[in-house]
Amino acid sequence: MHVILFDIDGTLLHSGGAGQAGIERALELAFGVTAPTDGIPTAGRTDRAIGGDLIRFHGLDDVEATHTQLQETYLRVLPSELTSRNGGVYPGVRELLTRLSQRDDVRLGLLTGNYREAAWQKLRHYNIADHFAFGGFGDEHADRDDVARQALSAAAELYAPHAIEREKLWVIGDTPADVRCGRAIGAQVIAVATGMYSFEELRGAQPDHLFADFADIDAVLALWPST
């Protein structure tokens, strides 16, 4: 059984800036902060880590209550931001997910830095949520490697007693952080240059497989020949 863990933003879809706009709106609504959030890195990071940086950057109290208030406000405003933005699913992604989901020897999960509910909001908005049954998310962990371990544990619990073979464990993402967290759980890593990092930058991260995009479905599916 192949277990394939997908990143979301930059890999499956782009939200048209909904996430950035949503967090800025949440900061204003929750704390009255109107300063821009430019300069805080986001690619490949967890919402927990990004939120912590924003809290400290704006001089807010770095306590759990602040994190919770920011998260809850962000989740409340994100749906309207998704609706108002011109985002979309990347070429080939819908067919790739559909064809993989139809196979008995493949299970699809998520490995994303998004808050759990933010991940599902995005996937539902673009009508691809039904392909996924489990995942690792960015609610609790600042380190993406820990999110990868969470995803692996979720898969092991869901599909027990079937053992997850490391040679059939896959991580798919668009950043060097995705490559690193895949290595942390012994997975094979597929990188795709549809996000913020170029093909050559991703090549430098040394994934096992590298694609410019997923438009050529057959080339991607060839990694998992039917038995």
Strand content: 5-15%
- Give the count of structural domains: 2
Order of helices and strands: EEHHHEHEHEHEHEHEH
What oligomeric state do the depicted chains represent?
single chain
Level-1 CATH class name of the largest domain: Alpha Beta
In terms of structural class, how would the helical and strand content be classed? alpha/beta
**The CATH superfamily title of the largest domain:** HAD superfamily/HAD-like
**DSSP E strands, number:** 8
Mean pLDDT: 95
Q: Could you describe the largest sheet, including whether it forms a barrel?
A: 6 strands, parallel
Report the principal-axis shape. globular
Helix content: 40-55%
Radius of gyration: 17 Å
Q: What CATH architecture of the largest domain do you see? A: 3-Layer(aba) Sandwich
The number of helical elements comes to 9
CATH fold annotation of the largest domain: Rossmann fold
Strands of the widest sheet, in order across it, are 5-4-1-6-7-8
State the end-to-end distance: 11 Å
Task: Indicate the low-confidence ranges by residue numbers.
Answer: none
